[in-house]
Amino acid sequence: MAKEWCIGIIGGSGLYDIADVEDKQWLLIDTPWGDPSDEILCGTIGGVKVRFLPRHGRGHPISPSELNARANIDALKRAGCTDILAISAVGSLREEIEPGRFAVVEQFIDNTKQRASTFFTSGFVTHVSMADPVCPRLSKMAAKAITDCKGKVATGATYLAMEGPQFSTRAESHMYRAWGADVIGMTGMPEAKLAREAELPYTLVGMATDYDCWRDGEEEVNVAQVIAQMQENSQLAREMVAKFIENLPKTRKASPIDTALDDAVITAPEEHDPAVVAKLDAVAGRVLG
């Protein structure tokens, strides 16, 4: 069934607000998973509902490893989001993805170690497919929006999610390249996994800030370098978001991801834990009856 678009926008490092939002108000949304990173900016752009969440909070007070990704995704679902456009600063592991180029992610390698990565625990066991972790429809629209804004874009990128908050060692950087990763960041996982569990089509646009540390003779990555490039990237990111919204089809056709839980729940109904189920009212309410 077709329904109205409501685009959740997750702003990464350097993107703590978006432009041209009408009827805007910041709302704090309570979740059973704790507090999200910040209030959510609710409003419209060109008549389309948008919900913007700065991933690290305004002013960047939250470390990548301490982000409450479950609360962030749950809050966006409660705010009415139908789809998520995530934006993130990344390091490049490929010569052709130079600083300033945006990369639309197609695949992930999750090398994080200490993060809650699922909504579904004992009492309501669920296994969603992550074979194709992003929404191809949204990814195509994101790439077009970047091109329309005269930005440089790479598509089909593989994102290596590392724990952080430290940057890579040179040995790690070379290893990630050997694994087939194209860009590296600290926040794409478990965010993408949780969006899939919440039946939210998701795409991630990486904004390359540096070449990590794999290039021979290259200086190590430092925060000053990253921030300088982030400031250049952020204006294009804002323009890309506006163009993405402008280019949306008038009608949102159903996505297979809208029903990702249909064949994923494995716990028998008589074994459902009421306490666990109660926390799933937003992300899995459709299948809870």
Write up what this structure looks like.
The protein has 289 residues and is of the alpha/beta class. It has helices at 69-78, 136-148, 170-179, 188-197, 223-247, 274-279, 285-288, and strands spanning 6-11, 22-27, 40-45, 48-54, 83-92, 102-111, 153-162, 183-185, 202-210. Helix 2 crosses helix 5 (223-247). The protein is built from seven helices and nine strands, in the order ββββαββαβαβαβααα. The radius of gyration is 18 Å and the shape is globular. Strands 5-8-7-6-9 form a five-stranded mixed beta barrel. The protein has one domain: Rossmann fold.
Give the CA-based shape. Answer: globular
- DSSP strand (E) fraction? 15-25%
| H/I helix tally | 7
Report the average pLDDT across residues: 94
Q: CATH class, anyone?
A: Alpha Beta
Q: What is the SS-derived class? A: alpha/beta
Compute the number of strand runs.
9
Radius of gyration, CA atoms, in whole angstroms = 18 Å
Largest sheet: 5 strands, mixed, barrel
Number of structural units classed as domains: 1
Oligomeric state, counting identical vs distinct chains = single chain
Q: What's the CATH H-level homologous superfamily? A: Nucleoside phosphorylase domain
Poorly predicted runs are none
Determine the CATH topology.
Rossmann fold
Helical fraction equals 25-40%
Distance between the termini: 18 Å
Strand order of the largest sheet: 5-8-7-6-9
